[in-house]
Amino acid sequence: MSTEEISIITSEKWTSLPAEFRRPGTSEHSENQKRGRHLDSFLEGPVWIPTLSRLFVTDIPYGRIFSIDPESATWSLLHEYDGEPNGMAWNPHTQTIVIADFKQGILSFDPTTNSLTTLISRYHGERLKGPNDLVVSSDGTIFFTDQGMTGLHDPTGRVYRISLDGRIDQILTNGPSPNGLVLSPDKSNLFVAMTRDNSVWHVPFYQDGSVQRVGRFSSYYGIGGPDGMALDEEGNIFVAHSTLGTVFVHRANGELRARVKSPVGNSTTNLTWGGEGLSTLFIVESETASILRVEWHCRGCS
């Protein structure tokens, strides 16, 4: 594929975290994962709830969940707790937001009552390493990544599946920092961002749900790596890179189709579809606590 065929798109800055919600300082998150760097926030986990027509995001270091009104871009603090919430996904079957919390496990948040409950924090009695992101399939099955502090020096990150009957299965146990993930519409393939491997892995399933041959779908470069992911109805896969300020858009066969660039900052960490017709791509730029957006030509997969 030639360079001329790759579209370069610049997203627009839509809104950013208001000053009254910023908290300059350090936290357990900044001490352990940012090597002591001061952070006034670190936004992540965007999710759009169609029934409420609102965007929700997390703030990892201060254990906060915000909602943003799409018309006025007004921010509301919904919940604050002793946790490190990262990825979120909407579960239409339970009408709740499922949260991957690095500190507390997999949680369930009711956006109508703002109540928070724990779904799981252990696997076979062992504490989880530190969940990062998740996706809910059309039938309610939950896939989540358990990243912890893994990397190329310690490739023991895990990917789990929570079935409808409550059974928990390990899908992968050798991931160097598993992060964002998307599931193909027919549920036959899972794509997992391996941040410290600077790649996205392709995980095909047999009909019984067991894993076939895992391979690399795409590879990147830079100090950070791929983070959150999204999918559109054409099968294009969107990969947010955490230190390049870029969302890479791949065709279903892996070819690079477009790059979506950030107008502010280089920390594009996660993304989701929303707006009317689910054709607006909302992108989180974490360092500046900004929400970017791009109008896409087709509908995204929720």
Task: Describe it.
The protein has one helix spanning 28-33; strands at residues 7-10, 12-16, 43-49, 54-59, 64-68, 75-80, 85-91, 96-101, 105-110, 115-120, 122-123, 126-127, 131-136, 142-146, 157-162, 168-175, 178-183, 189-194, 199-204, 215-219, 226-231, 237-241, 246-250, 256-261, 268-274, 280-285, 290-295. The chain is mostly beta strands and 302 residues long. The strands form seven sheets. It has a five-stranded mixed sheet, with no helix packed on it. A four-stranded antiparallel sheet has the order 2-27-26-25, with no helix packed on it. Strands 3-4-5-6 form a four-stranded antiparallel sheet, with no helix packed on it. A hairpin with a 4-residue loop joins strand 4 (54-59) and strand 5. The model has no long low-confidence stretch (mean pLDDT 94). One of its GO terms (molecular function) is metal ion binding. The active site is at residue 227. InterPro entries: 6-blade_b-propeller_TolB-like (IPR011042), SGL (IPR013658), SMP-30 (IPR005511), SMP-30/CGR1_Lactonase (IPR051262). A divalent metal cation binds at residues 44, 179, 227.
Report a brief summary of the structure:
It contains 1 helix and 27 strands. By secondary structure, the protein is an all-beta fold.
Overall mean confidence score, pLDDT: 94
The parts where pLDDT drops under 50 for at least 5 residues are none
Describe the main β-sheet briefly.
5 strands, mixed
- What string gives the helices and strands in order? EEHEEEEEEEEEEEEEEEEEEEEEEEEE
Cofactor: Zn(2+)
Active site: 227 (proton donor/acceptor)
GO molecular function: metal ion binding
InterPro entries: 6-blade_b-propeller_TolB-like, SGL, SMP-30, SMP-30/CGR1_Lactonase
